[in-house]
Design brief:
Distance between the termini: 116 Å
Structural class: mainly beta
CATH class of the largest domain: Mainly Beta
Strand order of the largest sheet: 1-3-4-7-10-11-14-15
Number of strands: 34
Shape: elongated
Helix content: under 10%
CATH topology of the largest domain: Jelly Rolls
Number of domains: 2
Strand content: 35-45%
CATH architecture of the largest domain: Sandwich
Radius of gyration: 31 Å
Length: 458
């Protein structure tokens, strides 16, 4: 472990393009491997990889993709996309440097910060600007560039999203229906009302959004009731059947509780949790148990299960089935799809809910609508790995700057030792007081006394 950390630090210090940072699934390179120029990087099904193209630039390959790092020269890094698709994020680049990207017959150069997606003969500019290698064409935000039989074609990307999704991003609540499979009493993209039940039929599933980065998934023949829907206090009660809760981002500002039996349990960390009407199982993570009679509580960790009694929970070791059931398989597939939409920046208009990042105490993640999902994934402020070993990443080039620090005026005390007057925000409300009387003009100087007469000569 220490040796791997030492090698990683060495590679970070050297900052050579080709450092392999993220490996998810079936990839022909290892994490923290320094990829040599000319080597083929290949991903299999349900797999991703990310490696550096410089100090502040990365390339991410989607599943079933192939790329070659053609040059690791910091002044002109070059990469070729042979198959599949890739996303390149550049959050900063030195003046005079550029990144050359070839995708089929399209050869381009990046010399500014931005986010770019490449596939065969095509480049999409999500943010920034892109030039053809011969500098004959330059395209900017929201455009697609294609080389068709040697001729360049430009087309506008459909980046906007429907008003209902903008409305949700502008004021997100828990209980949004993000996915429906089979029979259910709710429809896709519905906002479940407080007190309403969500029910699934045979071989059916529903995914509800709780807080950004947390997903509540119902199994077949299951029923839950939404009891509270604010981000700061979301509560779901199990009525029948079973459900899985995947928490990839744990935000201390946002409370999530699940009603199990007569009491509620609180999510205490990232992880994966399974619930029935009277049990809670911690496959990974921590649950906090509140004891309402005396205000005290305790925590239950990974590998434990609690069962609701009349006035308490009974705790025991969790017995995990060797074979995943249908809910397990569907949850794992959903997690991969959500991670892919995040990893490859498959977003629509990204701006509506960035207010979550721009407060003095910013949240750790925000919901992002993904047209490829026809639903929401999330964008974190930091990198997170899910229970299913999928990586969710921030997009530095997309995130807004942090809010400015509030400056509190500091006034020195008066020379006579009195305290400073209150600042405007400290003054009590009411009619303005009368201005103080003007100081009297200074008194006229007193006349000089007459000089004594000089003595007469003798």
């Amino acid at each position: 472990m220490l040796r791997q950390l030492f090698l990683f630090l060495q590679l970070v210090v050297s900052a050579r393009p080709g450092l392999d940072d993220i490996v998810d699934g079936d990839v022909n390179v290892r994490q923290y491997e320094q990829i040599a120029s000319g080597k083929i990087i290949q991903t299999g099904a349900n797999s991703h990889v990310e490696f550096s193209l410089g100090w502040e630039a990365y390339i991410r390959l989607e599943e079933n993709s192939m790329a070659v790092l053609e040059s690791a020269d910091r002044k002109m890094v070059a990469v070729r996309i042979d198959s599949g698709s890739a996303l390149i994020e550049v959050s900063g680049i030195n003046k005079g440097s550029r990144i050359v990207v070839t995708a089929g017959n399209l050869k381009t150069a990046i010399d500014s910060k931005g986010i770019y997606r490449f596939s065969a003969d095509t480049a999409q500019i999500l943010r920034g600007k892109l030039k053809t290698f011969d500098k004959s064409i330059e395209v900017g935000d929201g455009w697609q560039l294609t080389n068709s039989a040697g001729a360049y074609q430009r087309s506008k990307l459909a980046m906007d999203i429907e008003p209902q999704f903008k409305h949700f991003m502008g004021g997100p609540k828990a209980g949004f229906v993000n996915a429906v499979v089979g029979e259910a009493n709710v429809r896709l993209h519905q906002q479940v009302e407080i007190g309403k039940s969500v029910e699934t039929g045979p071989a059916s599933h529903v995914e509800l959004l709780l807080t950004p980065g947390t997903f509540f998934r119902l199994g077949e023949k299951s029923t839950v009731v939404l009891e509270a829907d604010t981000l700061k206090n979301s509560v779901v009660r199990m009525v029948s059947g079973d459900a899985l809760l995947e928490c990839d981002v744990f935000d201390l500002q946002l409370s999530m509780r699940v009603g199990v039996g007569p009491r509620k349990v609180k999510i205490g960390s990232t992880g994966l949790y399974r619930f029935t009407s009277n049990t809670a199982s911690i496959l990974d993570g921590v649950l906090a148990i509140d004891l309402q009679d005396n205000g005290k509580g305790y925590r239950v960790g990974k590998g434990r299960q609690i069962t609701a009694g009349v006035d308490k929970y009974d705790e025991a070791a969790l017995v995990v089935s060797s074979e995943p059931d249908e809910l397990d398989r569907w949850s794992a597939q959903r997690s991969y799809e959500l991670a892919t939409a995040n990893f490859m920046a498959q977003y629509g208009n990204a701006r509506p809910n960035f207010f979550l990042f721009q407060t003095q105490s910013p949240n750790d993640a925000a919901w992002m609508f993904s047209p490829s999902l026809n639903g929401f994934t999330f964008l974190p402020r930091h990198r997170y790995d899910s229970y299913y070993k999928h990586t969710f990443v921030p997009l530095i080039a997309l995130l807004p700057p942090p809010p400015p620090m509030q400056m509190i005026p500091i006034m020195p005390p008066f020379p006579n030792g009195d305290q400073r007057p209150p600042v405007l925000s400290e003054r009590t409300s009411g009619p303005p007081s009368a201005p103080p009387p003007a100081e009297p003009p200074p008194a006229a100087p007193a006349p000089a006394p007459p000089s004594a007469p000089s003595p007469e000569p003798q």
